[in-house]
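Record type: monomer structure entry
Structure origin: computed from sequence
Chain ID: A
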Amino acid sequence: MTVSRLRRPLVLLFAAALALTACSSDAADDGGGSAAGPTEAEVQGTDPLPTLPDDVALPIVFVHGFAGSAQQIESNAMRFVANGYPEDRIVAYDHDGAGLDIPGYTAGLTEVVDDTLAEFGTEQVYLIGHSRGTSVSNLFLSDPAQAAKVAKYVAIDGRPCPEPSVVPCIAPVQAQFPGQTHVEVATSKESFAAQYEFLVGEAPEVVDIVPQRDPVEISGRAVNFPANTGREATLDIWAIDADTGARTGDEPHASFELGPDGDFGPVELENGAHYEYALSSDASPVVHHLYLQPYVRSSAFVRLLSSEPDGTIRQNTNVGDEHTALVITRMREWHSEGDADVLELSVDDGEPVDVITDFVGNGAIGLHVHDDVATPGETTLAKLPFFGEQPFQSGIDVYLPASPDAEGTVTARNLPRGDADRPQTLNVPNWPSSGHTVSLVFADWAVDGAA
């Protein structure tokens, strides 16, 4: 059991909004914006809203679901803070995302809630559960002594609010947000607006995630997916060229020796810049390279989802010197049905191929993309074995040629459904899968000016 929170002072900046579900760039704000166009302050980010009083902003405790982690609160934590919520009062309870020990996780939640109450000297917290986290939360609330510690409860797309009612509760579900699916209901700005208004008592002024003016500072954990145990490794954070993914210096921007909890940071990053997060260990020659969508706001909920080099994901990935293997994730389901996503992959000047095939459906968060052992050197877009049977995952056969020294570039270009005119692109070296695992992490929110 691990607890994470926003724990460093942040200067979070935003553009004011006139609606609950979108911020408008032509709306007037404290920086003097008008319908004539955004001011320089709006482009760069404006001053944050005043901090909410402690009696309004009780500490929030978030409980994730099956195969989840603190990633499901990360984007909405940014939104809470942009609206004046004290950053250190948002707490995430990381527990085993693969097990089914609901009573055990409930005991862990009791410990987290008690520690949070003691730290902030409050009598109650706000509780937010998602998916299986609602089962944990409902069992917690079934004990009157524990329920007394909760002022309000948000049950996101899982078990309904407890009956009979024990605390004020809302239960945001997919039906309330047309087109949104299970994980997206936990991370979307529309769901955030409903949660904020319920907890705080008024509508949020800010729902879009826009850059802050000060340098970005991040911290988090490297974890073994889906158990959320800490990944003991060396973490090197490299500044990279956005156009190629190649490292731009001879030394890492920052390095950490990760202990059993996998904690790292805080580390300051350039706002909007691209970085590689490389996990290595003396115990294995395999290096895990993670490339995250550039951060434009500070976050203490970064999760580097990894696994031991001999774990089941690696065991079921076809590896070799000739091709690159990718794991592509987003905390918003990839949709191939209805209003579909587009996710194009190419190497150097090769023809892009869209990997959002029919069998991806509307429930996959993680896409495993590599050359199928049955058709070496060919892209068939066939379903890879094993991965499609795992929760929230799918696998697609794509041949991505590698080079021994990773001198080529794999380009991943996402045209997100609903925001296809705001593409997100990650360029990474074509590491050979024989000695390298490569993860790409796209933002679950629309990104302006993404490279």
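Annotation 1: Residues 102-120 form the longest helix (19 residues).
Annotation 2: The longest strand covers residues 216-224.
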